[in-house]
From TrEMBL:
GO terms for molecular function: structural molecule activity. It comes from Lachnoanaerobaculum saburreum. InterPro entries: Phage_lambda_portal. Pfam families: Phage_portal_2. The lineage of its organism: Bacteria, Bacillati, Bacillota, Clostridia, Lachnospirales. GO terms for biological process: virion assembly. This is Phage portal protein, lambda family.
Length: 500
């Protein structure tokens, strides 16, 4: 803090007044500043600068991604986090529910969608089904930070529409010249004046080499770039695992050290101490010893009885030490890694030893809020793919709709039903659903969706079961609805009585 010439004069004339002025000045400075923003002793080495997101990320992006991939290949803790996201965000996949307003048209679209989702129809490489592609996209987003999904219009397959995926490495960082004058290219993405992506420059090279050719320009309307945007100035992706990469690596290195230590501690070494040399010069060498034993290459086995040479003595080296703190340390690290990714320790470790029904359910509820953000992004990707699918379905003549373009939104309307997860306590969950249904907190449609079922199909199935059982004189009403035959078919019996 600088001192003015006036303060120097006052301090020279009256040191007391000079000290008071300085004390009040420092007090004023502390009142109008943040502890987190000063450079006092505690923060002396914490030097930071404010820069745009792209400027900050571009120097670390490739290195962070490479390290995340290394942990993906070699770290069980890393894969425990990724596995938790895959299981809960996409799991067994999503079921399409078309909502055109026509049951017949809905059935046609849903049937065509199931057919298109097979690997030979949706993937240009013919190696992954749609659900498998989405599962891979979810994984690459968490590790690499993002993935590019390109719409391709081909002549083969069920429809002239397929998908091709590209890793973010294939965006050409070296491309500087835009395709359209007035645009700019940042990190392989061509942007307009509002920083809106209008095209992507994708490198062309064989998958088994690094031989580069001229990059290909793909218009943004045919590209879905799946990544998380954290700041307005962010253009490209950054690995979702970046906040926890160093902690995961520390835990791995710790476990390697503990493993080496335990292997050493498990070794039992035996040394033979000889009081009389077996060889040498002199008349006393070997006197009265008879034949000598050679211990080289010998090992200790259970129940072994072995005679030693006269004068030989055994000295045992048994390294002591156990990894007593390893379990607690790794548990703490895994808790912190889970917290850094917004999920619970139980979700990553699968360790339920310290939880009960209430705590587990609360943890699942909190985790679901984290997964909901990823589900939102994934369903947006699937929405765009589905809309292109329906348009391709109409253009190919697979569906006949005269007013398709006029009422396009109506025919593109749909919903996704995620495959259900198993209940922690089926009885408690079922009672909770029953109470929610009876009190109007949930509708039958909502409960059916939570179980991964179409509510109309479920009602039709129940009606079929009741009708079929009735033909054989079996009362299924008491089984399904806890009602007697008279209560369930009361209206029909009244009608028959009236007719009689």
């Amino acid at each position: 803090m600088s001192v003015s010439w006036l303060d120097n004069i006052i301090s020279f004339i009256s040191p007391e007044w000079g000290a008071k002025r300085e004390a009040w000045r420092q007090s004023l400075y502390e009142m109008r500043s943040y502890d987190a923003g000063d450079y006092s002793r505690g923060n002396a080495n914490w030097r930071v600068t404010n820069q745009s997101a792209e400027y900050t990320d571009k120097y670390s992006r490739d290195n962070v991604r490479a390290r995340a991939r290394d942990l993906e290949r070699n770290s069980d803790m890393m894969n425990s986090v990724i596995g938790a996201y895959k299981r809960n965000v996409i799991g067994g996949g999503y079921i399409l529910q078309s909502k055109t307003g026509s049951d017949d048209l809905n059935d046609v679209i849903e049937s065509a969608w199931r057919k298109w989702c097979k690997k030979q129809n949706c993937d240009v490489t013919g190696t992954q089904s749609f659900t498998q592609m989405m599962r891979m996209c979810m994984k690459r987003k968490k590790i690499d930070g993002g993935i590019l999904i390109v719409k391709r219009y081909t002549s083969d397959g069920f429809l002239p529409f397929k998908l091709q995926t590209f890793e973010v490495d294939e965006l050409d960082n070296s491309q500087m010249t835009p395709k359209i004058q007035g645009n700019k290219v940042v990190g392989g993405i061509e942007l307009n004046e509002y920083n809106k992506p209008v095209g992507y420059w994708i490198r062309q090279y064989p998958v088994d080499s690094l031989a580069l050719t001229t990059p290909v320009y793909v218009e943004a309307k045919d590209v879905i770039f799946l990544y998380t945007k954290h700041r307005p100035s962010q253009i490209r992706e950054m690995s979702d695992m970046s906040p926890t990469i160093t902690r995961i690596r520390d835990a791995n290195e710790f476990m390697v050290a503990v493993s080496v230590k335990e292997r050493i501690a498990a070794c039992l070494s035996v040394f033979i101490k000889k009081t009389i040399p077996t060889t040498g010069i002199g008349r006393g060498i070997g006197v009265g010893q008879g034949s000598l034993h050679d211990y080289q290459g010998k090992s200790i086995t259970p129940g072994m009885i072995k005679e030693l040479n006269a004068g030989d003595e055994i000295q045992v080296v048994n390294p002591a030490g156990q990894a007593t703190d390893a379990a607690s340390y790794i548990k703490l690290q895994q808790r912190l890694v889970g917290a850094g990714q917004g999920i619970s320790y139980e979700a990553t470790s699968r360790d339920m030893s310290e939880s009960n029904y209430s705590s587990t359910r609360q943890g699942i509820i909190e985790d679901e809020m984290t997964y909901a953000e990823e589900k939102e992004m994934l369903t947006e990707v699937m929405d765009e793919i589905f809309e292109t699918f329906v348009i391709s379905l109409w253009l190919s003549g697979s569906i006949q709709i005269k007013d398709f373009w006029k009422n396009k939104d109506k025919y593109l309307d749909h919903a996704w039903i995620i495959a259900p997860k198993k209940w922690i306590d089926p009885q408690k969950e079922a009672n909770a659903n029953k109470i929610a249904l009876n009190t109007g907190q949930k509708t039958f449609k909502q409960i059916a969706a939570e179980q991964g079922k179409d509510w109309k199909e479920q009602i039709e199935e129940i009606a079929d079961v009741l009708a079929y059982a009735r033909e054989f004189g079996i009362d299924m009403g008491s089984v399904i609805f806890d009602k007697t035959k008279e209560d369930l078919y009361e209206d029909e019996e009244d009608d028959s009585t009236a007719k009689g």
